[in-house]
Fold each of these.
Amino acid sequence: MDQLDELTQAVQRLYQEPAVQTGYLKLFHANAVAEFLALGYRDCSSASDPESEIPTGVRQVMDAFQRLHSRQHVRFYLVDPTYYSWSLQRRAFHLGAPSPEHLCKSVIFENIRCTHSDYSDATDSRYYCVVVQYVSSVNVNKLTEYVRAATNYAKGKKQYNFRLVDADTALTLTGFGNNAICPVGLNTNLPIILDHAITQLQVDT
């Protein structure tokens, strides 16, 4: 384990080198464009299309990026069925991420004390899609204060009680299954809250 830790630290130090940072980003974007051009773009919903073998959730994300004219800026990775049992560092290595801190997840929270089911108003929604780092967790107290601040604290704390939604509700709201929610391509226009720490990430993090 000591040797593995030393190797991990050595790799992370490499990402701190300016030349490596620049090269990493250039290579990522070049590969993204190459994959896009090699695949071309076809309507992923077509059953006769070769892309129909791609999982539904992945096609959903691909279509969303295509509508945003950003398909050539992202990459998709094939992972082992046991991927979610791997350590975060192993996942980062597999995805070519600079560090485990760059691995993020999307979770759906519900304010169970909300008096309505609407989510069209980002300042007063029953549901929120929260994007957070895997190395971190959502602090519901901070989440509550963030949402309250958006309304200039128009409601008291007792009117908020955020809980993770169940898998069925998440599937209905997002179109994605368990451990597979992506903030791009959601079934509904849920308000999205991005953890501030993610905005501070750099290649050398």
Amino acid sequence: GSYIVDKAFMTNAPPKMIVLHPLPRVDEISTDFDSDPRAAYFRQMENGMFVRMALLALVCGKT
């Protein structure tokens, strides 16, 4: 089954529920949902970048 997360899909979701996604997205998350505070995938993407930078520094001995 396919689904699309958009504002209409999230109307019945709990207010504290967040949506994560590894990105890049294709059609599974509508861009109209990007401004919703529960859309946490951009924060996830940014935090993932810093984690990868730290791991790379650790592996390369640059701690």
Amino acid sequence: MLQPTDLQANGTSNFRYRIQVPASGARRLKAALAWSSKIKYTTDASLTPPVKVTESKLTVDLDLYVYLAGSLVAHSSTFDNSFEIVEFDAQPASVYDIRIKRFSGTDWVWIGLAWTVV
């Protein structure tokens, strides 16, 4: 879960995920971030029979940033969905940091982050 208290004043996460790239072999790094929407259920009683309406609303816009030695090397910052993906050729024997940045919204959300080096 990502809460407002997990973020600095500029919206950047106050935590990071580290990715170790092997010295030889795999070099393609791919990372993906996804987050939940808020679900609201209502019943439209004006219809016969009454219809249950489900509304899904994104309450935050998150971005995905990848750094090498403090320098930004990749990012994804779309605005109209609940995921971000980056993919690039990584430097061998390097350690990359993944950070999340909240572009908009103040709500808490469930997040999922995955990465691979192939």
Amino acid sequence: MGVTDKDGHLTYVNESLARALGYSKDEMIGMHVTDFLYEKDMIKSFYIRNKDLIKNGQFSFETSFRTKDGNKIYGEEKVVAVYGNNGEFVGARGVFRDITQRKQVELALRKREAELDIKNKTLEEMNAALRVLLKKRDEDKGELERKVVLNIKELVMPVLEKLKKSKLDNTQRAYLDVLKLNLNDITSSFYYGLSSKNLELTPTEIQVANLIRRGESTKEIARLLDCTMRAISFHRENIRKKLGINNKKTNLRTYLISHS
């Protein structure tokens, strides 16, 4: 607690207030209350509050105070006016409560909130930039795929058609058919679907699966791929296992068509 005259000079302080500010009681007597304000721009505010005190008889406020060794503490002050026998204003009496710990927690929380806001804004900006990059990547990927498909259809396929009309033996014609099928696979959504589902199908299994989907028999697939029917049956079984239908009465061709 502290008592001031009408001009704001201390005439009395108790031990608790002196200890909080790091002074002895004798050192504080005669000092002006603004000597203890940490923020000097609070001095103007003090005089405004002093006028309110004279008019209204009391006021409360929270502010920062400077201790004798220069440290900042926070305090809550409740001040009431003291009047003389004739009703004139003669000073004030204030009760001080140290709220430094509470204020430090509040300031730490505000700082943390500000840091989180900055991080959130940064993340939002990064996410926005990432979305733009991903969109651009997808657009570039789509454009590249379109160019590949267009080049195969306009540049490669016509040559293969001309080659097919030339003098080829049965083996060469079979290889040509396989080449055309493989090129069609590359440009089909079915090929991309099988190769992107993490099924771990081998390139040969993807070829076999595509030929099964087209309705080719085991014998015809063996002829086109130049291997035995037993090898094709083995590939069929592996495909069923990897698709998770090896123990089911599911027609493989029907399954492949439905997942095209």
